[in-house]
Amino acid sequence: xxxxxxxxxxxxxxxxxxxxxxxxxxxxxxxxxxxxxxxxxxxxxxxxxxxxxxxxxxxxxxxxxxxxxxxxxxxxxxxxxxxxxxxxxxxxxxxxxxxxxxxxxxxxxxxxx
Amino acid sequence: xxxxxxxxxxxxxxxxxxxxxxxxxxxxxxxxxxxxxxxxxxxxxxxxxxxxxxxxxxxxxxxxxxxxxxxxxxxxxxxxxxxxxxxxxxxxxxxxxxxxxxxxxxxxxxxxx
Lengths: 113, 113
Hints:
The structure holds 2 protein chains of 2 kinds. By secondary structure, chain A is mainly beta. Chain A has strands at residues 5-7, 10-13, 19-24, 31-38, 42-50, 53-57, 64-68, 74-78, 87-94, 103-104, 108-112. Helix content of chain A is 0%, strand content 53%. In chain A, strands 2, 4, 5, 6, 9, 10 and 11 form a 7-stranded mixed sheet that branches. In chain A, strands 1-3-8-7 form a 4-stranded antiparallel sheet, with no helix packed on it. By secondary structure, chain B is mostly beta strands. In chain B, the strands form 2 sheets. In chain B, strands 2, 4, 5, 9, 10 and 11 form a 6-stranded mixed sheet that branches. Chain B has a 5-stranded antiparallel sheet with strand order 1-3-8-7-6, with no helix packed on it. Chain B is globular. In chain B, 34% of the residues are buried. Chain A binds chain B through residues 2, 4, 42-45, 48, 55-58, 90, 92, 97-107, and chain B through 32, 34, 36, 41-46, 49, 89, 93, 95, 98-106.
């Protein structure tokens, strides 16, 4: 167990809908990262938050947004969902601001029908 | 940006044999190279990492080598066991590049008992 908790484990929704994925980092970790894993694109970095502030941004679509709350948990919001958004979404955490020693959660499997 | 290529995409070995997975990267400024193991239904787990000021690092049956001149690094697993069966990902990043960890496409390792 990595200590990173993601909910829900599975999510099935329809095109055009909006969903929220939740992540609780390991105790004491200040950074939260979001990754998207799909068969054709591999592991793609979306966004990082450090102690409540956006730290780095990757290939995140404008339809997607995230935030980190004062208790350090994070949420990834996906809106106007398309079939191609179906993927496994991982959250990871690390103690500091750099991307060393990432601890990944078990992921949320999103299926857009 | 950084581009990481990983080979082979699948690797089948007999229990007790060695396994080698190779990665190349494009950005000469990259200086951090982790390897992650992903078991079925789980998130990636860091198994070993290396920085550019080190040519080789070992941890029990696992070793990583880095050739900065050629811009490639490799994962070596000796005395493979069935529990080593998983998907392995290499990654690269440069500290000042917004903490974007770029992953390779993954190698599915199958260890036959």
